[in-house]
Amino acid sequence: MAAKYGASNPVPPWQTSLDGICDAIDQSHCGAEILGFADRRNEEDTLSTTVYADLPYPENRLLALAHSLVVRGVIGEDELAQRLAAVRDRLEA
Q1: Of 12, 62, 77, 93, whose CB neighbour count within 10 A is largest?
Q2: How far is CA 52 from CA 28, 33, 34, 47, 82, in A?
């Protein structure tokens, strides 16, 4: 994807944040109740190779995590859309 868009850094800037979010979920006391490490990784692997197979890595991983969190009610689709819109607004400002 970096070559397609002429980016010099092949790792997107949000990759570190995604890794941190996954680590925080994995190590959280309530994380196992909501989305434990094994469940998160299994869902990520499954969704990345099925539902989000047409997307490149790590974008498919990001969407798999969002999918899992929405399905579990951790964040609603409307709230996620609002947060994405706010981020987009900041980036385009």
Answers
A1: 62
A2: 26, 25, 22, 6, 22
pTM listed for this prediction: 0.77
Average pLDDT over residues 46-53: 94
pLDDT-derived band of residue 2, with 50, 70 and 90 as boundaries? low
Q: Is the pLDDT of residue 33 over 90?
A: no
Residue 25: how many other CB atoms lie within 10 Å: 20
d(CA 8, CA 41): 29
Cβ-contact 67, 47 below 8 angstroms: yes
